[in-house]
Amino acid sequence: MKLNHLSLLSALLVVGAAAFFVGKISSSPQAITTTEQTAPSQTRVSRSPSTDATAREDRTRRAPRAAALTPENRLTRLESIVRGENALDRNRALLAFIDQLAPGDFEAAVAHFRSLGLTQERMGEYALMLTAWAEVDPLTALAYTKEKTTGDFATDTILSTWSTVDPEAAIRWANSNFSGGGANPYLAGVIRGIAETDPTRATALLTSMPRSAERAKGLDAFLPHLIRKGNDAAYTWIASLKDDALKGGAVERAAEPLAELDPEGTIAWLATNPGEQAYRRIDNVFNIYARNNPQAALGSFQSMPAGRDRSNALRGIITAQASENPTAAVQLMDRYPSDVNDRVVQQFIWHSFEKDTSASISQISRITDQGQRDRMYRRGLRTWIDRDAPAAQAWINSNNLPPAIQQEMTERLNRK
Question: What is the C-alpha to C-alpha distance for residues 55 and 61, in angstroms, rounded to an integer?
Answer without folding.
Answer: 10
